[in-house]
Specification:
alpha+beta; five-stranded antiparallel beta sheet; 4 helices; 5 strands; globular
């Protein structure tokens, strides 16, 4: 049946979802997963920026009482959407002005917002989802990650 999608297409377009416990060592795993999935999707130009944004989003879980989180990466029409679900109900403000670069924290979401096409937070019954979208049109360089 030529109208039916092949198994390969289903696997390629399927979102990547991982549930894990936060530790700094997990961030390298997230970067490798992001790079592999983007290459599989043919979105090599997004590897560097998306890996950075994924690392920043996932590293914020260290502020939660429960270190378990879920990382989801979805292909969109023009790029990719990253979502990090954690158990903290605290919604933080995504800065629109540069933070104090002498402070020990508070720069991550500002940098995410600078790299992403869109960024936001959605409350859930058990915590929140912090998300960011990156589009191919946002990438100026020909980095093939």
């Amino acid at each position: 049946m030529p109208d039916q999608p092949t198994d390969e297409v289903d696997v390629i377009d399927r979102p990547c979802a991982i549930r894990m416990e936060y530790s700094p060592q997990r961030l390298e795993q997230i970067r490798r997963i992001v790079g592999a999935r983007l290459r599989c999707w043919g979105l090599q130009k997004l590897v560097y920026d998306t890996s950075f944004v994924a690392t920043e989003l996932c590293s914020n879980v260290r502020h939660c009482d429960d270190s378990m989180f879920e990382f989801v990466m979805r292909r969109t029409d023009g790029g990719v959407r990253l979502e990090v679900t954690d158990s903290s109900p605290e919604l933080v403000v995504i800065p629109t002005e540069p933070p104090d670069f002498m402070s020990t924290g508070g720069r991550g979401l500002f940098l995410v917002a600078a790299q992403a096409s869109a960024v936001g937070m959605t409350p859930t019954p058990t915590g929140k989802v912090v998300w960011a979208e990156l589009a191919l049109g946002d990438v100026d360089t020909d980095v093939s990650g």
